[in-house]
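Feature request, filed as a ticket because there's no other form

It would be nice if the structure record came with a short human-readable summary line next to the tokens. Right now we just get the raw output. Example of a typical job, pasted below so the devs can see what we mean:
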Amino acid sequence: MYVVSAQQMRDIDRFTIEQIGIPSLVLMENAGVAVVREVEKRWPTGKVVVLAGPGNNGGDGLVIARHLLNEGREVTVWLFGREEKRSEDCRRQLEIIRHSGYSVTVWEDGSEEEKALQLQTELGRAAVVVDALLGTGTKGELRPPYPFVIEQLQNGPGTVVAVDIPTGVNSDTGEVAQKAVRADVTVTFAFPKWGHFLYPGADCVGELVVADISIPRRAAEEFALRDAVLIGKDLRKELPVRRPFSHKGTYGHALVLAGSKEMTGAPVLAASAGLHTGCGLLTLAVPSPALPIVASKINEPVFWEWPAEKGHFSSESYVLLKQRLASFDVVSIGPGLGTWDGGHHWLKEIIRLVEVPLVLDADALNLLAEDVSILQEKKGQIILTPHPGEMGRLCGCTAADIEKDRIGFARMFAQKHDVYVVLKGTYTLIATPDGRIFVNPTGTAALAKGGTGDVLTGMLAGMLAQKAAQGQNIETGIQLAVYLHGLAGRICGETSMYATLASDVIDKIGSAIKRLSFAGDSHVTDFPGN
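Raw output as currently delivered:
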């Protein structure tokens, strides 16, 4: 499913109306009915207050109100904005609702004191409030009366349903106005928008529902959309097939280089996650001082002891890789690695050697940040998995800078260095070497715990080993690992958002794969509430 900017959505709407011939009022009717469907399904009784603005978002709100009134619901409709600011379709929907015999309360300049108490009273009685004030065109701070209206809305008891995007959220950047609607459910149309996934706006969205309003596939194809959201029912088709007549060699051999004398837990997490994800064999290479402790915690990997200096991999130990490199389908480096003098040289030589997919995480990224130009030495595809702090070090800026433009930094770095970038976060982004972005919707606060990044590294190793062994595209392997990692975390969160440990996430990998296998069924939700 594509994710679009506000301008892309306007272009698609215009093409649909002008070139395909579907009237704008038909699209608006479909949008309104989609919201009504969600309201009726979730809240079949109780008073509804519809807050409509002067644009097409307000026109959607008037459609919603009319259909609910037709069904006999108690509905109060408020219309904001100056008359001269109303869009043509909003004007026509206002005529239709009035001709249908329903009343609309208009908030006019100079009537604030008179109307304020009435609005407060009605919002105080509402079971559901529909936010159809401004939509995707919002940028910057809101002008009166919207800050006052939003304040009253948020102080009321009603559940809030936002139409397309919560008022006050920038649909391209996720920036929010000082006063912005915090919705319980957001119903958007045709495609999700970037503001649904970028913080802080994403925190205002609640549960996201993407509704079909009859925009044909041709309209999207006309504009060569590239960026997309990962969807379970599509990814289920990419799961590696487990055939009855197969063996461990069928599912690939992963190598994980991890650990140091002080950090022996991370390699265990990564290796266990890789094996749970399904690779047939996994070799775990650790520096010699760490081996006894690591080997006492996990039994399943093949262990490979590497020379050490001061508790870390020795700077010349990379030569060992030459002996067995042909045995591996994927190499992952980083969990618990630490940094040391000579570490950058060690990593550079490994990058020069490895021709299979190479995953770099944690301290491997910190070593890389000393000089990212060594990426030019690569022989195969490289996947980087930074959190915002590590991404900042790679880009020479702060984590705060990265968070302000996650899409821009991830896309830029991936294209510039011809690598995949998995920028971790609540909505993890996957940037491809050719400039596309994929958004993972399965993230959860249950994953906000040390060690879960090591689990992702192992899952990438396990999934990419299977894909490589079966001669399949590694891009879908990256997508599967990221999606399943978030889904396993979400399953853990169903028990406790507080108590989840990295090892718990590993234990739920199998459950996540099973749930993905049924993606597309009614019980599978791709866009959870925040």
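Something like this underneath would help us a lot:
The radius of gyration is 26 Å.
The longest strand covers residues 281-287.
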